[in-house]
Every structure is written in C-alpha cells, then in structure tokens.
Amino acid sequence: MGQIGVITNDKRQVFQRTVIAGAQEIASTKGYGVLVDSLAEDPNHPKPLSLPLAQIDGFLVLANALESAELEQLQQTGKPITLVSHYELNIPAVIPNNTEGIRQLADYLVNVCQCRRFVFIQGHMGQLDGVERDKVFGEALVRHDIPIENVWRLRGDFDAGVAAAVLRNFLQENVQFDAVVAADYLMASVAIDILREAGIYVPDEVCVAGFGDGPEAEAAGLTTVAADVMELGRRAARQLFAQLDGLAIQGVTWLTTEIIERETCKPKVERWHEATH
Amino acid sequence: MRRGKATREQLKRHNRRLILRSIYNGEADNRAALAQATGLAKPTVSDIVNDLLKLGFIIESGHGESTTSGGKRPRLLEFVPTARQIIGLAVKRHEVVAYLAYLDGRIVAQHHVAGNDGEALSTETIFYAINGLLAQQDEPLLCISMGVPGIVDTESGTVVSSRALGWADMALASILQVRYQLPVHINNNTELAARAQRFTRETNCNHVTLLVNRTVEIGFTLGGTVFHHGGDIGNLPLPTHPEHTVTALTPEAIQEQIDTLCRQYPQSELTQLAPSYLGLRQAYRHGDEVAIRVVESLSETLALLYAWIIGLMRPDEIALAGSICDIGDILITLSKKKLYELIPQRHVDTTQLTLAGEDNLAALGAIAYALEKELGVL
What we know:
Chain A is α/β, with parallel strands linked by helices.
C-alpha cells in the first residue's frame, strides 16, 4: 500500500486535525495510508522531521510547518509536494481564497451591518494566511473609504489565548468601535466571551466575525466567512494525487468562500431596534 | 454523402440546443411544452429528451398538472447544473487565472499561476493552470474555454496576434485539444468580459466594457449581441498629447508619472506606499498633491476615451473594468466633469458610466462563452 506523509506543527489543533481528516478520506479511496509527522506539539521544543522519507510517495505540508530550507530539502527527494494554506518555492498549493473571503466579510460588515470602526485581530504574521488576511482586510476598508484611523489592529497569532489577552488590554483603553473581525474563527469565538465579560452586547453594540468555520464557531453562533476546512484537506490531497498520477502543476488552487450568517452580526437597523426596546 | 451526414448532425445539434435552452431558461418543463416552445415535432422532441436524459444534462422530476382536457399528467424535466464542469481561463500578460465551474456558473475552485519574471507567458503556464483544476474536477468536463489579450480567430481558435503575450498565429485551441482531448474555445479577454457583463443586464442594451490591465482593451455588446472585433486599443495616441497613448491608464504608466511627480513633491505619501490604484485612492482622499494630479490626469485620458465611444455609438453603458476600478467613484465623477467640456451634456447623460468591480470578468465570461458554444444556453 502506498503512503502519503502529512507534515504539520500540531496535529491536535482543530484546523490541522480537520485538514488531515479530509486528506485521509481521499487517501483511503485511493488505497493509500497516511503518516502524520506532528513537529511542534511543544512549540518550545520542536522535533526534527521523522517521517521515513524513502517509504513516502508524496507530502502534504500544512501551513508553515517547515522552514524554506527544510522545504527545499524535501523537494530534493524528487517526490510530489502540496502545500496547504501556504505558498512558496513554486510548490503547488491549496489555499482558502483569503482575498475573496475577507472582502466578503468587509463588504458584509460595512454594507449590511453598517459598521464603521473596526478592531482587527491579526493571525500569525509569519504565515501567509495571517499576512494575506491582514493586508486584504486593510485594502477592503480602503475600498469602502473607511479612514485608517478607524481601524485598530491587535496581535492574535492565530492563538485564542493571545487574542483574549490582547483584546482584554485593548478594552481598557475605552476606544469606541462597532466591529471585531478576527483572522480565524477560534480567535473570534474567544473575542465574543471577552466582550461579554466587559459588558459589551454582541451584536447589539459590537458585531463579531471571523475567518474559517468549525463546530466551535457554530456553537458560539459566530458569523464567519469560510472555505470548508475538511474540503481544504480533501482538495489538497486531490492535488497531491494528481501529481502522483503525473500531472505537472504549478501555482495555487484557491477554494471558494461564503458568508455564514449567525447571531454575532446584525444589520444596524435591527441592532438599533433591539438595543432600544 | 459526407455533406448530407454533416447536415443531419448539424440539425440534430441545433435541435438539441433549442430543447436544452428552453429547459435551461425555464420556457418549457415537459415534452409537450417543449414541442410547442420550439416548433419541433413531438417524436423529435422525445428522441432528443431521451438523449439528454441519458447524457445526464436533464432529469425527470415528478409530474406536472394535467391539461384542462384531462389526460396523463406530463413528466416534468429539469436541467442538471452538476452534470458537467467547465474550465474557464483568462490568460494575462504575466499570469493565468482559471475557474472550475458547474453549468450554472457556480465556481468550485480557482487556480492562479504566475509566469516567470520578465519573460513572456508560455503555453506551459496554461497547462499548469488547467492541470491544477483537472486535479479538482468532480464531474466530467464539458470543455475548456479561454480568453487571451489580443486578436483571436474564434472559428479556428488561433491567437492571430497578441502584443501583451508576444504571440502571433498561435493555434492555441488545436494545441490544447490534442493535449486534453476536449473541445476548446478561445476568445478575446475583453469580449469575454463584455459577455460576462451582458448576463447581468437588459439583454437588448448597447454596452461597452473598457478593460485596463497592462494594456487597454475594449469589448462591445450591441443590442444584446456580442460584437467580435473589439480588442487592444493600447496603441491609440492621445490627441492632447500625441506622444502618449491610451496606455497612460495602465499601472506602469501611472507609476512612471507618480515617480516623476514625487521628485517634485518629496513629501507626498505616495513615496511611502506600495504602488497600486488603491494607494492612489487613499492618498487622493488625504488631499495628497501628487495623487490629485495623477487622478485628474487619468480622468482626462478616460474622458477622451469616453468621448470617442459616446460620439461613435451612444451606448447605454460604458463599464470600466480591471484593477483601475480601485480608484473608486471619484474617477467616474471627475471623468464625467471633463467629458461635459468635450461633448454636449445631453449625450453624456444618456450613457451610464460605471465601474465593474469584479477582477476576473474575462474568466467568468469564458464560462458563459463555453455554455453558449457547447450547449446553446444563455
């Protein structure tokens, strides 16, 4: 039986385990096994790559699990590689359409919810997804002529704990804002709790939305914009198997995103009505 | 003999397109209604419907009401948008953008491939983009449809000349047909962009699309029908500055202008911003002198183009497409103001000047073109 290798930082995280589940689904239909190398379950003591490279037919590398130099070494095995949510060294990749998604979210918050003062919780700025979502959000607000002074960027690192601490500190500054947007749904979910702890009504006073979707977002009633993460895993595996079948691929496949409207965002007129009755 | 057979096949194909279009557009949903809507004989309709059922393009979806005279309730027919998928591409000077879509235009995935820095785009880059989406196909492919900048012989699928790509007499459709064993349709990017816009507007309107990327291209829809001889107008000189051409609207020309002005106004915020139309918009709103001059000069060039188009054909709408739209409504407002100085106001006011926000209209138009060429729908 053939084997594909999945290289990730931490296979226990929601995003990573969902992508891996999607990839496993496709691999099993192709009669392949999946070996997972989880390199940084303890971020302070990352492990070196331990997959038996000679026995692996192709690799999926999730987010920024490998540095460029390590990716180059992996390329030297001559085996196909697909990157997930990351793109470099001309290696083919599958990525949620950050541009489309963040634009949809900004359009929705400005046009439908009529929000004008934004807190943006950034992702990890060492990861492509983090950098792109931050950049595109800023650009989308320029397209709506929202002045740059009405946007506060907070560090979140794609880590709910970091996002919670930074948002708590920010609230002490008593800045007026009417929307919180987070670069992922886990940070957005924790933002709802922090705002409510501080006595801020969501969505009557502040709308909250995030990128990506999962059970936690659904449980929190969070409005999100998402490409299905399981589907991301499936599509990445399909790209890898296509390469194994001999298709020459370069460039990036972007997955379509859509707004999932839940309880944490409402049109201004409804928010106003409910807050005053 | 061969000729006779071809004619029968053509007729069958024509009839099949009539039937499919009637179902797709909701004009008829059962065999009797199809015969009435298309004027075809009932046995002919029945044969074609059976073929389409076998091919999976339509399904029977229950029974309708019987007629007032009684009789059997008709079996309802429904178009199946997931029966096939289409790959629609837009080839640009330095990149290929490709969409994988179902027959209702729903996009499943996009694939982007950038060409090598400073080199003309190669056909290999197109293969990479198509392969990227072949990996993602969920259903059999109907065809590949593609837009390119430049002049295209759509019958043979040959790129006659493309200044942006540096191609001449490139038999692109044949190359791809041999490689992928699928029907391939090629057209000009701006014509496809116009086609994409046509489906969101009144079908009989006169519509012009001006696409600004690395060059300036024009596409027309006249009375709802796409005019096939638009294309690259980047070489047209500006009457006010004959040493310049309409490529003065392109990002490269604007950057040159910004660099020159920034030497004169070193305090301009554009010296700090990454070059983009969006940066220009931001600086303009902050009252930056360089941004104001550049946007005004762009409006002047645009007003000249608008004046020619309105003077020649009085269209109902001229849509500006491409990343230049990032400058926003101010570009239209200023252009219109300058346009009033060039032609009578009554002529200006009968034409709507708009911004087409979508970045990849040509790739979307390629999908619409495929549906029209292959199935006769839309």
